Each structure stands twice: as structure tokens, then as C-alpha cells.
Amino acid sequence: MKKTKESLLKVAQRLFTKQGVAEVSLRSIAAEAGISHSNLIYHYPTKNDLIIALHNELLANAIALNQKVKVAVNPIEGLFLSTEAGFRILYEFRFLMLDLNYILRANKSLLKTFRDLEKVRAGMYQAEIKKAVDLKLMRNELYTGEFDELIVRIKIFSEAWIPSSEIYDSGPVEKIIQKYTQLFMGFFFPYLTEKGRKLFEKQK
Amino acid sequence: MKKTKESLLKVAQRLFTKQGVAEVSLRSIAAEAGISHSNLIYHYPTKNDLIIALHNELLANAIALNQKVKVAVNPIEGLFLSTEAGFRILYEFRFLMLDLNYILRANKSLLKTFRDLEKVRAGMYQAEIKKAVDLKLMRNELYTGEFDELIVRIKIFSEAWIPSSEIYDSGPVEKIIQKYTQLFMGFFFPYLTEKGRKLFEKQK
DNA sequence: GTATTTTTAGACCAAATGTACTAATTTTTT
DNA sequence: AAAAAATTAGTACATTTGGTCTAAAAATAC
By residue range, what is the domain housing residue A59? Predict the structure, then answer.
């Protein structure tokens, strides 16, 4: 029955988020899910298998999202929408970002996936930026590599806002999502043209 | 004898960096340091005590640094120098940033220290930015809170470049330090005036 | 309805870990 | 030099954890 597997993922996700991946044992997940230790191992032999399954869920959600947000009127609105929606999804699976190093250290295949995904996203941002420049929403580079550097900073922010939030924020999830979406979008603001800034203000 | 305590810190730092804090046991530290398990516990009863001691070392280094870098000619050069030096120190203690969440979860006092330090640093950046604006090296805010948002992004970057580097970089330490110093400084570039950009180019 | 496959639980094991206690040794104080 | 304090090692214990093996129970196929 699929029910057990799904329930296990939910329980694992909850415990990972609450206690941290390193502190959660397979036994505690099984107990919380109300099944035997050996039964859990039957479905997911190691903690890694649980993590990978959850990461796959995250990916599935992210892909589904991308289909949906393609209705934006302009690049800036699109960026706003997809960022906010993406951040919301990521936040649900935040244990992945909170314990990223611990997870990747024990999971080289996930590390590779991470690196590959990063390249895809970087390419996506390059395309979006080019589009914005063509539409005169963004200025041109002032030195070569300026936008590539921006993209790296964006990447780091995207990976890091959740751990940072864990340290400094409290309060409702929605507030947090909005705060970091805002902060994220702010990356682009100083590169925008007058025209771009007007569109930006409308979203804000 | 102080020798034992210092040697223990060094060994712990090395093992934490190599294997991750969660994976290192007190026994393995003792073994690597060539002393008995119970002796280690005599000096540092828990892993947390080791971590706090190492964090104190980091703070001491950082404070010592701040005394030294006050010879900069202008704010931009000063920022370059202190950033690079600060990043170099932080990198030595990178296990703190790599396993930050794991560490802070088990150590509420360190969490408080972290939050307090953050406020200090934010104030410092506000002052530096104000100075740069007064010197016409940086433009004024285009909307209220623009620079405060910038400072938050900077904070997140400062905490996150090491974990990110762990995922995506390889190669000599110095290269890494320079790369992320460069990326960090790039945060300011789009806010600089013509005059500021000239100083910026000279550093780069 | 029987056979087969999948799912589940229970018992057990070896390794590792934190912890406590005791005793020996070394260093410091007086 | 003797006493006191600090440092070090040894030992032993209870707990937890990942992992294996076996057998029962449930679901599915034939």
C-alpha cells in the first residue's frame, strides 16, 4: 500500500524540520508513524533514502510550479511570482536547506544533482536578464561578468535565506516568505532602468 | 597545562572541518589528540564546550583584525581589506558556518551571541554606507529601507558563502577567498557614484 | 480457493556513545 | 618535603542506533 510510504515521508519531513536531520533516528520516525522499525527499513533502508524521496517531491513540486507561472505579463512580474511561489515550496522542505551540508556530505549523488540544477537555474537567470535588457527594463553590464556575479549572489541568497531566517526570524510563514521575496527582488532593483523601476514599484 | 587544551582545540577544529560536527565523537577527538577519552571530558565536558571555545577563538581573531585594518585610505579600500581579512579568518573556522544550524540548535547561548553580533555588524555597515554617501562615493537611497535591505542581503551572503563554496568550489584557499571577496564587494558596485566606481576599479 | 508476493512485526546483535566512578600520576602550593 | 590541587587513564554501564534474520499476516495473482 502506498499509504504507508506517503505517511512515512510526511512524518520524516516533520521530524527533520523540527529536530534536525542528524538528530532524527529511523527508529523515532517509525515510532512516530506508528509502525515497526523493521517495516520502515523495508520501505526506506536508510535515512538517505528518505531524504532523496523528499528531495524528489520538492523537485516535482518545483517543476509543477514552473508550468503554472508562465502567464506573467512581463519579466519582472514573472520573477516576482515565480520567486514567491518557489520560496513557499522550498520553505516546506526547509530541512533540506537547514542541514544541507550534513545531507550532501553523506550523499554524493544528491550533491551532483544540486550542482546540475544550479547550472540550469543560472542559465535561466541569464536568459531572463537578457530579456529584461532587451526590453530596456534593465541596463547593460558596466563590466564583463557583472551579471554573472549577480547571478552567483542570487544563487547564494536562494540557498541561504532559509537558514538565515531560522536564526533571525519569528512569526507567520507568510510574513517570512514575503520578506525574503522582497529581499530577493531587491537584488535586481539597482540594475533596473527607469522603465524597469516603474514596473518594479507596481509589484512591490 | 595549557598545552593539552590548545592541542585539543586544534584537533577538534580539524576534525569538525573534515568530517562535520555531527559525525565527530568526543572519543575520536581524544584518540586523534593522543589522550584518553576521560581526559578530554575533564577539559571539555561536551562537544558544545569545544565549539564555544573555538567560537571564542574566532571572535578574538576577528577583534584583533579590526584593530589592524583601520589604516585604509578610503571606505571602499577599507571594506575590501577588512572583508578579505575577515573572510580568511572565517574560513579557518568554517565548520561553524557549515554546520551552523546543527550547532545553534543545541546551543541557545551561541544563538544569542550570533544575533547580538549581527546587530553590531549591521550598525557598522550603516555607518560605513553613510560615510560613503557623504563622501559622494555612493548614491542616496532611492526608496526608504533600500540600504537596510542591502545590509540584510550582505549579512546573508556573509553567512552563506562558505557553505556554498563547499558545494561548488574546489581549488586553493586563496582563490576561494578572493572570489568571494570580489562577489561581496560587487554588492556595492551598482550603488556607487562615478567617483566611487573609480576607486572600486582600482581595488579590483 | 490456493499459491505467490508484498508488507509487517519481533527478536537479536554488534558497535558507538555519553556518562559516571575510581585510582594513579603530575603539578602546584605551602 | 609534605599536602593539596589539577591532570590523566582505566573501567564499566546503560542507551541508542543501524542492521540482519525469521516468521507471521495481508494483499494480490492465478
Answer: 54-203
